[in-house]
Design a protein that fits this description.
Blueprint: E1 12-18, E2 24-35, E3 39-44, E4 48-55, E5 74-81, E6 85-91, E7 96-102, E8 108-122, E9 125-138, E10 143-146, H1 148-156, H2 162-181
Antiparallel strand pairs: 1-2, 2-3, 3-6, 4-5, 6-7, 7-8, 8-9, 9-10
C-alpha cells in the first residue's frame, strides 16, 4: 500500500467483515484491479482460501433456526470460496458493495448487492460490517431482496439497529432503481471481465484464524 493509501493493480488486499462487537468475522483476499483511494475494484476467483465464520457448535448459520442465528457465538475457520468468481466494487462512503458473479467457464451470471456498513480502511484492506439484507440482480436487470427475514431477526437480536436497517434498505432501493434503469453498475460494465491469466490466486496472510 502506498503512502497515499491507494493500492496498486495486482496487489492483494484483505476485505474484512468486523462484527458490531469489534471482533473480526469473515476475511476475503482479493486481487486489486483498480483503486483510487475511495473506490476499490477487486477480484476473488473460485478456489481462493478465505476465512469463514460459523456458529461455535460447528453449524453454518443457514443450518440453525432463524431465532438462533444471531444469538449463538461464532468462530472463524479456514475454508474455500467455491464454484463462482467475483469482481467486487467497494466505495468507501457507500453502504453497499456490488459483486459481479462469473461461472467456471468465465461467463457472467449476474450481480449481487451486498449491503454493508463502511468502516474505513486498514493497511491491509477495507473493513465492512455485513448488513445481512442484500439484493440479487439478474443478468437481465431484474432485482429482488434477499434475507429480509434474517435482517429483521438481526435487529431483534441486537446485531443491527433499526436505524441501520432503515439506511441499508434505502441503499438497496437506490441500487434496485439503478438496476431497473440499466444504469451503472448494471449497464454491462465489466460483464466481460477476464483476469490476467498470469495472476495466482490471492493469498491470506498467516495467523488470521486464531480466536473467535
Amino acid at each position: 500500500m502506498t503512502e497515499l493509501g491507494v493500492w496498486a493493480p495486482g496487489e492483494t488486499v484483505v476485505l474484512r467483515f468486523p462484527r458490531p462487537d469489534g471482533t473480526i468475522g469473515q476475511q476475503h483476499p482479493m486481487r486489486v484491479i483498480s483503486d483510487d483511494g475511495r473506490v476499490l475494484l477487486g477480484w476473488l476467483p473460485a478456489g481462493t482460501e478465505i476465512v469463514g465464520s460459523r456458529l461455535v457448535d460447528g453449524r453454518s448459520m443457514r443450518d440453525a433456526p432463524l431465532g438462533q442465528r444471531f444469538r449463538i457465538a461464532r468462530e472463524r475457520f479456514l475454508t474455500t470460496w467455491e464454484h463462482t468468481s467475483t469482481l467486487r466494487l467497494i466505495a468507501e462512503d457507500e453502504w453497499s458493495s456490488v459483486w459481479w458473479f462469473f461461472g467456471q467457464d468465465g461467463g457472467f451470471l449476474g450481480w449481487y448487492v451486498n449491503l454493508e456498513i463502511p468502516r474505513g480502511r486498514t493497511p491491509a484492506g477495507p473493513d465492512r460490517i455485513d448488513g445481512v439484507l442484500d439484493l440479487m440482480v439478474t443478468a437481465a436487470g431484474e432485482w429482488s431482496w434477499k434475507d429480509e427475514d434474517e435482517a429483521e431477526e438481526a435487529v431483534l437480536a441486537g446485531r443491527l439497529t433499526a436505524d441501520e436497517l432503515t439506511r441499508l434498505r434505502a441503499e438497496g432501493e437506490r441500487l434496485g432503481a439503478l438496476a431497473e434503469a440499466g444504469a451503472f453498475p448494471f449497464d454491462g460494465t465489466w460483464t466481460d471481465f477476464s483476469p490476467d491469466p498470469g495472476w495466482p490466486r490471492p493469498r491470506l496472510p498467516d495467523g488470521l484464524v486464531s480466536g473467535s
